[in-house]
Write a structure and sequence with these properties.
This protein is α/β, with parallel strands linked by helices. It has five helices and twelve strands.
């Protein structure tokens, strides 16, 4: 596994415990990826080599050109060695990157009525996928079901809402497991909301990313509703 150096050029706070890290890769290294893939980060922490995998949130460069930058969406894990290290770094900090890896990728062109289902930081690979879809002006209708514990846990909330307002073919369903009185959206679990919005499932493709119980329950539910097993793509966080 070959690692290259990357400089942190921007850090954005997305929620109370989740940051976006924009990395600039070494100029003389070829790096290309597909929407949905992940990278491995490495750092030496107190003399120990620590590696962790994180999904890429930025869209792939156009025309398969060399990627100069990567955006990673990373949720802080209490006691996590690498996230603690990352969240201690500032702009100009350096981290090592290897990849890309993974077969959880966007199947193009997307089909009419494609379904994306995420919980928590499982939204990260979907940000890469959907940013590419909107950049390429894909006219197909598709759905994003996104589950979070409460409103302050919704990652990329503003960007998702802007897409929902700007694109008639995009349907955003945010579902909170801990509903507050002033919340006007769905409450409960995303895997229970499919039939509220989608009537037919023949020839649909579905992408699932998040906590294991959501991924497995959603997969079983989609199969019951008529989605073919081979058209369901999943990644557990």
């Amino acid at each position: 596994m070959e690692f290259i150096k990357a400089e942190i050029v921007e850090i954005k706070n997305l929620t109370h415990n989740t940051n976006s890290f924009l990395l600039r890769l070494e100029e003389d290294k070829h790096f290309n990826y597909e929407a949905g893939q992940f990278v491995m980060l490495k750092a030496i922490i107190n003399g120990e080599e620590v590696k962790r995998a994180y999904s890429i949130a930025s869209p792939p460069p156009r025309d398969f050109k060399h990627a100069e930058y990567l955006e990673l969406i990373i949720k802080y894990v209490e006691g996590g060695k690498l996230t603690t290290h990352l969240f201690s770094l500032n702009r100009g900090g350096v981290i090592e990157v290897a990849g890309p890896f993974g077969r959880f990728i966007l199947k193009e062109p997307i089909k009419d009525g494609d379904i994306f289902m995420a919980t928590g930081s499982g939204i990260a690979p979907f940000m890469s996928m959907l940013r590419k879809v909107f950049r390429d002006h894909n006219p197909k209708e598709f759905y994003l079901f996104y589950g979070a514990k409460d409103e302050k846990e919704i990652i990329c909330k503003e960007e998702l809402n802007v897409w929902n307002e700007m694109h008639e073919n995009f349907h955003l369903i945010i579902c909170l497991s801990e509903k507050k009185q002033d919340w006007k959206g769905e409450s409960g679990y995303v895997q229970d909301k499919l039939t509220n919005y989608i009537r037919t499932y023949e020839n649909k493709q579905a992408y699932l990313c998040g906590i294991p119980i959501m991924v497995e329950q959603s997969r079983h539910r989609l199969i019951e509703l008529g989605v073919k097993k081979e058209n369901i793509y999943k990644e557990k966080y």
